[in-house]
Amino acid sequence: MSKEILDNVKEYYGTVLQKSCDLKSDVCCTAKTRVMTKSAKEALALVHEDVDSRYYGCGLIVPECLEGMKILDLGSGAGKDSYVLSRLVGEQGHVTGIDMTDGQLDVARKYQQYHAGKFGFSKPNTDFVKGFIENLGAAGLADNQFDLIVSNCVVNLSPDKRAVLAEACRVLKEGEEFFFGDMYADRNQSEEIRQNKMLWCEGFGGSLWWEDLYKIAAEVGFSRPRLFAAAKINVTNAELEAIIGDSQFASVTYRLFKLPHTNEPVTEVVYNGGITDFEDSFKLDHEWTFNKGEAQVVSGEVATILKTSRFASKFTLTATDRQPAYNEVSRARIGLGALDF
Ligand SMILES: C[S@@+](CC[C@H](N)C(=O)[O-])C[C@H]1O[C@@H](n2cnc3c(N)ncnc32)[C@H](O)[C@@H]1O
Hints:
The chain is an alpha/beta fold. The protein has 13 helices and 13 strands. The two termini are 31 Å apart.
């Protein structure tokens, strides 16, 4: 693992940046391209100003069906996503944030009691631990410990993405998912971009070519990445723009599921409703949206997700001889190309 990169990133997020607007791109504003749920909006309104103003993510990361979940937030920073999620999991749930930068952890820890009070909880349901996301074991995180893992604009900063994904897969319970927002590129980065300290710290230098994510995910034991949302990122600094040239970047939200080794067969599924904020319709990814009461034939992998994840109690699954409406895998290869690039 490159200590120099980690030290640069620590310095950048610990001392160089003080507020969201200090970033040199509009990455934090890509959130506006996504619909925020009523519950998330209510939670966000209660987040302390000091936490909110130190937000460096790319879109608020709020998956569905959170009640009672034990969540891990990789690179939790000042804690904005962690606190929104801590309200949504409720008093019986828990959010652990992990970050390597003391300045960020200090802000997050300072407001634990404050947020518990605002949310009407008898005690905080959060903790913020110091550590590297490439080595969660060193921070004391055990195998199959979490119901859900999230992250917001952090994986791209790591010099060792394979280690991050492998560790996330290890600490996640089977059937569940790593739901994360991150920066991706339409190509491998040139050495000039990778070696530029500010471009790395802003997330551009370490952005994976999105095709590489598919390879790494498979190698470490995750299912094929499911694209949830994407928005183009604009660099707002002329000097950095000149180095980047015509490379394109996007803020992307992916779901990676840790599934059992054998898939279900092709199956007919019906969404029965019951997911908070998504009573009428639930979007799994850009390929699959399930309207309440409507039967759809899905691939074996989607059937496995719906059978083994926290969404299981919201769906009825029935064996069928029919085939899915389209070949999922060939459509997925279009990937980001179908969206903003
Ligand atoms: C772009 S900020 C995002 C913070 C937060 N998720 C948010 O949305 O505001 C990146 C954060 O990840 C942390 N970070 C970056 N690389 C890390 C690593 N390898 N291990 C642990 N934390 C890391 C930084 O310290 C910083 O707080």
